[in-house]
Specification:
The complex is a heterodimer. Chain A is mainly α. Chain A has 13 helices and no strands. By secondary structure, chain B is an all-alpha fold. The longest helix of chain B is centred in the N-terminal third of the chain and has 34 residues. Classes of the chains: A mainly alpha, B mainly alpha.
Amino acid sequence: MNRKLSVLLFSRKAWVFPYVAFAALFIVLPLLLIVGFAFTDETGAFTFENFSNFFAQSEAIHIFVYSIGIAIVTTVFCILLGYPAAWILSQSDMNRSQTLVMLFILPMWVNILVRTLATVALFDFLRIPLGEGALIFGMVYNFIPFMIYPIYNTLQKMDKGYIEAAQDLGAAPWQVFLKVVLPLSLPGIVSGIMMVFMPTISTFAIAEILTLNNIKLFGTTIQENINNSMWNYGAALSLIMLLFIGITSIFNSDDKEHSNEGGGLW
Amino acid sequence: MVKRLLSRAYLWLLLLVLYAPVLIIIIFSFTESKVLGNWTGFSTELYTSLFDYSIHHSLINALWNTLTIALIAATVSTILGTMAAIGLFNLRGASKRTIGMVNSIPILNGDIITGISLFLLFVSLGITQGYTTVVLAHITFCTPYVVLCVLPRLKQMNPNIYEAALDLGATPFQAVRKVIFPEIKSGMISGFILSVTLSIDDFAVTVFTIGNQGLETLSTYIYADARKGGLTPELRPLSAVIFVVVLSLLFIINYRSTRQNKKKGGKR
């Protein structure tokens, strides 16, 4: 009996049990609670009211659409500015580019609020007024490392032979880029979009600070509702965002795994 | 040649923009002016007054809370995550996939969703939110990263040496301690350091689980400060110190991982 018990306790599979219990309580149950709260009212009765409220309020929908718009603009800027950087980094020799990539990733480990406040300071310093432009700059500034890194990773692993082959076969430089390099680096772009787009739609503090609270993003709306004890409505808004994240990540699940394999951020 | 020069210039320009705000903070931490951007002569006064407990007890308390929360959360996450990784590595099939998927939820989810979901959990269970709930929340989003740090080390390990240790008379516990542990130690350390940085950095999850008992971490303190409009001048030297500390931690991690990569490359 004693021996059996010890075999069970020290069988290596059993080591996962504490985490399974922990994850059930702190990861799975809380998500179910979001769903539960979203479909009930304050008394706990089942209702669709939270969602009909959302779709009835033009302001709430406006903020949601506007947030997605800001997220798209941010993501596009990140691609346009980050892709050339990733390309240049992937061209330089190995040791040098490793260090340079580190330099690009470094700022994102500084507290996001401190960085944003520093951006505000920079804008004050240059006498640039805060507002939508500052918001987009701040977002791009905060998230561009997440775009550069995965693109750099795929470009780094790309077989350079394809480029040479295309050139030998008479392709012009722009053709080489459009028909060879871009398609091959698509997985990197896709996971970059994931890593930029997702956090951008869910930020709240950054927008408040960079626009002096003049522009509201969806994250801010959620936070305000939770703070004002409108838990059920807040949960419904969270569920809408969760579904949005879920749908976007299903499209990318394969690429996500690839980028994790490439790892090395830590 | 011109192309090379241009591409170099582009990289350095981008880096300059990325670092400009941080540089401004660091530069203006060496002057006494209340307003950022106003240079009133070189001084290290802010660095001294930062640690003056009589003036800045709330800031120092917030810093202390941030550090202790990070250390507790990272320690628990490292133990929990390592055990989970060892168990997960030896599992097969559907249960392995399911646990792996659940493990990735806090990573994929927006911070705000993780924060709100935990907020609803604590509210539903009737738990008063405070220090403990913040620690639990931080363990929740740190552990998945530890699992992801340790798993690759287990995959690299020769699976036979554990069996060999058992055959040579080690108890399973001894075998884990003396054979598996040394192999995955580097992954555990990376996971621990990563957890510390994630925890110190976190704002969104903390703000939803910190409750209203007056507890503050650095993030919530800065947030409250920024909302009031004026930044406490001492936050400048503090941010500068944090930046330098994080920088050094990152260089340690990077140094470790490149050394390991070299080792790996050598074996191949």
